[in-house]
Here is the input.
Amino acid sequence: MQQTIIILDFGGQYKELIARRVRELGVYSEIWPCDVDIERIRAARPIGLIFTGGPDSVNAPGHPACDRGVFDLGVPVLGICYGMQFMAHALGGEVRPCESSEYGTVACTLEKGSRFFGDLPAEQRVLMSHTDYVHRPPEGFTLTAHTALCPAAAMENAERNLYGVQFHPEVENTRQGKDMLRRFLYDICGATGDYSMQDYLQRATQAVRDQVGQERVLLGLSGGVDSSVCAALLSQAIPGQLTCIYIDHGFMRKNETEEVRRAFANRKLDLRIVDASEQFLTALQGVTDPEQKRKIIGREFVRAFEQAARDCGHPAFLAQGTIYPDIVESGKNKSAVIKSHHNVGGLPADMGFKGVVEPLRGLFKDEVRALGRMLKLPRALVERQPFPGPGLAIRVIGEVTRGKLDILRDADAIVRQEIRRSRAKADQYFCVLTNVRSVGVMGDFRTYEYTLAVRAVRTNDFMTCEYAPLPHALLYKISNRITSEVQGINRVVYDITGKPPATIEWE
Here is the structure.
């Protein structure tokens, strides 16, 4: 069995980051809800447990909790933030509200003799985010770190292999947080580092072969990272048995369909590109409401996909590019939350597939990209910007027309090209064709054309974001090129709103 760290989720916003950090250090990790049955944990035989943070107080009625028997499983436990407070509370310590809460990066001093911290420098910079603290640790625990405002920044009972940190070692703001996690995994849990992308590829390949045998598999290929890597893996695992249906709804970015065609031209699969742009545009005539657009596009996609599936003989299995964050069980709502993928979302259950093939369901997005590079997919595809299922249709404000889409395609290509060339720090960038027209002047003529909004954001998880402060010189160059090269736009604006209060997309 592969060594595994189980991360019990108490509602923490950084749960996925913890899991990714553990995997980056060569140890497989999974996120489970905090109230999972203890027998399920015991059966999994983890080498260690990590408790996440969370927004609740252990002193509040109904606070998130796990079975207290986890402390007697004989495996090391690391509690982070709320996880440390829960450990203290559950084992007889006392947690109180802070006199002064701590938020942000602060100085932290490590005490000598800590097994968890080992020989790390005594002076650290760590990220704190808490309103409660451990006022009195449980019997058998010692305090191993403090800050100016928090006397219990860390605690441990080395004899029982129980450790807690009030700060967040998983974030970059905690300068040596990765070293702390490494010590926990290797020096305390006894990890051997048996997790790698090569190992995952071998396991996933064999699992696919075992599942489908000689049967044919159908994949809705969107051109995004997840479905593309899924297609590459399946074509290698079961050469000649995969049919990929690419529905071109007419809302793709410039040259994207041809890029997908070239990327898979020499793979051992049957790629069928369906031009359904007229079908989708006709269905969207006169529609301006964003939610209605999405529903219509989803409905038309199902129709187009069903017809294409019938045309290719209806393979036995359906493949999806589902990845791990799409299936993570939440510690807050205690149920699996499955993301509806636009390439297969909403497909009727009566299509008659024997089963669903999801070879990427154990991976995070950065791991999917790494796997794509291993499978020798083009870099432009592996590093592709996130793109909504409805495509440019929800980046055209108001009614969607072929003319508006052509304008936006050309402008979007310039935005992506210039930001990519500049190496500016932005995690996602695109533009939106607003429904606003304004007066302008070009040469000796008055114009009345569209206003284009440029959007660039920085984010770790896409749940929240801040706008990317692109250099003014870059913004000027983008604006100048667009108004000079793209007919139909005479004004460019830059969106500097974060999420919240806005969303990343405009619709």
